[in-house]
Amino acid sequence: MKETAALVYSVFKVRIGTAIMLTALAGIAVAPGPAPEPWQIVVLALAVLLSSASAGAFNMFMERDLDARMNRTRGRPFVTGRFSANGYWLSGIVLLLVFAIAAAVLATNAVAAFYVFMGAFVYGVVYTVWLKRRTWMNIVVGGLAGSFAVLAGAAAVDPGLAPAPIILAVVLFLWTPPHFWSLAFKYKDDYAAAGVPMLPVVVSEKAAANIILGHTVLLVALSLTPVMFGLGWIYLLGAATGGSLFIWTSVALARNPSAETAIGNFHASLLQLCLLLAAAILDAWLL
Question: What is the CATH number of the domain that holds 99?
Answer without folding.
Answer: 1.10.600
